[in-house]
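Encode chain A's predicted structure.
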Amino acid sequence: MGISASKRVKTTLSNSQDFNSACDSTFTHCLSLTQHAFQGILPYQLPTAATYLHTTLTTPAAAAPLILKWVPSPPNRTQIDWALRMVTNKKPGAAQEEKGELILGHAKFRQWALLLFTETAVGNAGKAILGRLPLGVAGILGVGAVVKGGKEVVGAAIGVYALGVVTSVYLSLSG
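Encoded structure for chain A:
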């Protein structure tokens, strides 16, 4: 299928004018909340930033299909903290420290947002696959038992169904 699902989502989001504009708007919004007292966003502002970014991306004017489908609600605190750890540990010293506070500048904030929404979308897509496959497989097994189909036929039908579900979800990750 080519590139991995997370690379596909990351490419789609990073090339999206709506996503980039929403990141800029969110960064500016968070700076205004602190009355520009800092050069970036503080970690305690990230849940607010994630919610604001999600709201911006799901408004009718800037609705990003990928976000609408795979990120139906704002990322939770665990996902937000994980993305922060990944961004700040990726390159030591890349995030500024001012008076002992970790501060995300504009570039790091955008990187954090991209990672956060990429991993949230891919995680939700994985959950969708895990939710759809067992039901379909059970249905195919039930039909196979009723019509007394051979094991090979039922096995092939399950394989084709599973491939179809995975392909469908993968293709929908491009937005």
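The chain has a mean pLDDT of 85.
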